[in-house]
Amino acid sequence: MFATLSDRLTSTFKNLRSKGRLSEADIDATVREIRRALLDADVAVPVVRQFTGAVRERALSAEVSGALNPAQQVVKIVNDELVAILGGQNRPLNLAKNPPSVILLAGLQGAGKTTLAGKLALHLKSQGHTPLLVAADLQRPNAVTQLQVVGERAGVPVFAPHPGNQGSELDVVSGADPVAVAREGLATAHARQHDVLIVDTAGRLGVDAELMQQAADIRDAVSPDEILFVIDAMIGQDAVATATAFQEGVGFTGVVLSKLDGDARGGAALSVASVTGRPILFASTGEKLTDFEVFHPDRMASRILD
Ligand code: GDP
Description:
Elements: H1 3-16, H2 24-40, H3 45-60, H4 70-85, E1 101-106, H5 113-126, E2 131-136, H6 143-154, E3 158-159, H7 178-191, E4 196-201, H8 209-222, E5 226-232, H9 238-249, E6 254-258, H10 267-276, E7 280-284, E8 292-294, H11 297-305
Parallel strand pairs: 1-4, 1-5, 2-3, 2-4, 5-6, 6-7
Antiparallel strand pairs: 7-8
Helix pairs in contact: 1-2, 1-4, 2-3, 3-4, 4-11, 5-6, 7-8, 9-10
The structure holds guanosine-5'-diphosphate (GDP).
């Protein structure tokens, strides 16, 4: 994902290697190159400004240390600041003391929510949880079926308002009201002792007031322990506006980056935690259900600077 950014930063640092001591001009030139590399990777402008400001300040005031040469010192500072904009430390999923825990997924259509629902269900199942998936995306004709396919692959049941389910294991909710589906899903989780409920919601291609309200209504109906905003890491400069709209419309407690396996520039990955003040909990790295990682800011920073 970050191949270009990684190469650009590495070559910037290489130029410093021959220097015994860094002058202010050296530092400014380095910071300028870092700024260009981040902007070319589509990192949001305010994040770039904050990042380069912090790097410059720390590089200028860095003590000459015996252990690290000036180039290594700059690498360390950039590494620390990358970890910081990525959210510092991993924050584990917040699960309720009294199950079932409710996890609501929100994001644009195509962001990777339904796929993520299956990945998260599989991940939780492997930890001994007994998740139930809820298909509250009734906007897209295929969304319910898609979640059922994903659930089957993960070996996790799906609560869905699907006529085909009549008389089967799963309850049927009359009509197609996603708020009612979510509410019934929660009741079913209680009744069948599922300890985690994962609710998939609808998303449009652009931010849409009606669907935002629908997600907020679902939120109010099921009182989630986590609201995870799923964002396609390839979204580029739209990341900030999209995240802000979801923050205002639904509110979210954490972020999931999807499609981190893509070869695009990855600016969303580097902007969204910093801009929203919400931690990145997980990363989705492919179409298979096992292409899923707990997100560790320090490991991601090392990957970028490797
Ligand atoms: P939703 O509309 O938010 O529910 O998004 P979907 O889960 O349907 O995903 C949209 C498309 O992106 C599907 O074709 C998925 O297979 C694909 N997809 C989801 N997550 C990833 C990922 O991490 N990497 C890649 N390469 N594709 C993904």
